[in-house]
Write a structure and sequence with these properties.
Elements lengths: L6 H17 L9 E7 L4 E2 L2 E4 L5 E7 L5 E5 L4 E5 L4 E6 L5 E7 L2 E10 L1
Parallel strand pairs: 1-4, 3-9
Antiparallel strand pairs: 1-2, 4-7, 5-6, 5-8, 8-9
Length: 117
Amino acid sequence: MKQASIGKRGLVIAALAFGLLLMVPSARAEDAVTVTTSMKGHRFQPAELHAPAGKPIMIVVKNLDPAPAEFESNMLRVEKVVTGGGTITLRIRPLEPGRYRFFDDFHPETEGYLVVR
């Protein structure tokens, strides 16, 4: 039975294709900007986070209370429970400049903002 061989020409084409893939810019996790807030006594600390426009954003939320909370934002299209004493990380797509509201769905008066410039 004959084995298929890609030969030198095939290897050169594959190497060139791989090289082109490496040159394509992409929004990678290591390019993300990380911002952090904590929740305690039904308040976000800080209540206003800042991030640059056009870059992926990682929001780290620490719940310093014993009761669970639910970080939610209709504007950011995220919703996630944070257990008492727990920490979550949310990955947010690159955003346009603006002010994006977030809140604790269990206590909607507990709110904060992500300001993107």
